[in-house]
Amino acid sequence: MKKIIPALLFCFASSLSYAQVIGVGLGNGGLNIKSDPEKRLGLIGRVGLGTGNNWYTVSPNISGIMRVFTSDNAKPYFGIGMGTSFTHTNTSNSVAYNTFIPIGVEVFPLGNKRMSVTVESGVGMSSFNNSFFYSGFRGLLEFTFYVGSQK
Fold first, then answer.
1. Nearest Cα residue to 102 out of 124, 70, 85
2. Average pLDDT, the chain
3. Mean pLDDT on 83-89
4. Contact present, 127 and 134 (Cβ < 8 Å)
5. Based on the number of CB atoms within 10 Å of its own CB, is 39 exposed (0-12), middle (13-18) or buried (19 or more)?
6. Could you tell me if 23 and 37 are in contact, meaning their C-beta atoms sit under 8 angstroms apart?
7. Which residues are bridge partners to 86 per DSSP?
8. What's the rounded Cα separation, in Å, for the pair 100 and 62?
9. Residue ranges of the domains in the chain?
10. Confidence of residue 113 (pLDDT cuts 50, 70, 90)
11. Taking a C-beta distance cutoff of 8 angstroms, is the pair 122, 99 a contact?
């Protein structure tokens, strides 16, 4: 399992290097990087950060998505994703793995191709101490700015 995450990150970085348009944004899921919104298939990478008294959490994840149809103002999608969550406290460290099925829509307000608002939901499963369990629905709201040559 330790080799899967670096392999996925390598595939994600390789696919973004061929893309002419890359989106970078921020939302309640953390920082995000998205591939070209004009393509039918795409990748979304996110890194969430959390902190509190005597603890911190880093949660990277990656989703492969397929856009159902593309219009000028909205691009609904669904896919599959996987990620992990590293939590460090003063007394212990823990790692949890998760998979999820994202269902969302990316909206380009007023036909602006550079900025988008994404609303996403989905079902998730988590693994902790070698047992999988249903972790419920997830919700996401994020804002993305696309850089690169636009069509």
1. 124
2. 84
3. 89
4. no
5. middle
6. yes
7. 58, 95
8. 10
9. 4-148
10. confident
11. no
**Integer angstrom CA distances of residue 33 from 84, 88, 147:** 17, 25, 11
Cα–Cα distance measured from residue 145 to residue 15, given in angstroms and rounded to the nearest whole number: 18
Q: Which of 144, 145, 148 is nearest to 16 (CA)?
A: 148
Helix (H) or strand (E) holding 8: helix 4-18
Three-point CA angle 70, 72, 75, nearest 5°: 40
User: Which run of H or of E encompasses 16?
Assistant: helix 4-18
Token duo for residue 126: 């988590």
pLDDT digits 0-9 by tens, 47-81: 999 888 888 999 999 999 999 987 878 999 999 99
Q: Is 130 exposed, middle or buried (0-12, 13-18, 19+ CB in 10 A)?
A: exposed
This model's pTM is above 0.85: no
Q: Write the CA distances from 34 to 15, 30, 55, 58, 126, integer angstroms.
A: 10, 13, 29, 19, 24
Q: What's the fold here for domain 4-148?
A: Porin (2.40.160)
- Token code pair at residue 84: 């992990």
Rounded to an integer, what distance in angstroms lies between the CA atom of residue 128 and that of residue 130?
5
